[in-house]
Request: fold
Amino acid sequence: MSLLLNIDTAIGTASVSIAKDGHIIQEAVNTDQRDHAAFLQPAIQSIFKNAGLSLHELDAIAIVAGPGSYTGLRVGMASAKGLCFALNKPLITIGTLEMMAWQAINQFNIKHSDLPVLFCPMVDARRMEVFTAIYSKALNIILSPCAIVIEKKSFGNLLLKNKIIFFGNGAIKWQPLCDNENALFFDSKINPLYMSELTFKKYLNNDFSNTAYTEPLYIKEFFGSQV
Reply:
């Protein structure tokens, strides 16, 4: 049996949840990105009180490590690492884009396709920039997390031989520019359930991060339109 605290302050909607063997038993959500710092600690205290549990009963603490909001990532990582040190518990990290892709893979149903189907989460990085990656249906990485400047010819080579599902708040900027019939768009709001499934798998595999040296994944380099 595993009891995990999952923390996500990476983008617009923040959440904290307690998950038992990958199933959420308590959660709290905040939709105002400006209040993530003020929301986090009271929310953690509240969900543990409601669940009748103590923080000391946790087996690990998990955090969405980025990319995303610079401030949100710093707040979440500092809280997660502080709890790990205080409680002597291991740290689990999950990528924002990986988590978004896992949710879309489970939610988006494409019944018939004569081409391979890929999944492309996009996080708004201001102006015409996005943080993005591309995954297969098995969550294998096709394009590693990176930052790109969106333009009409973006993803052209991949769209020749694949259908690609685009989603996330960055996809809103890409959709008006894209007229490729192999590009599909999916409206998906972050659901803490899918983070809990990924962190549970990492826990079972003893896939822990080094608490002292783990930092948020900011992705500062920009690669233009190389995809």
About this structure: The longest strand covers residues 141-149.
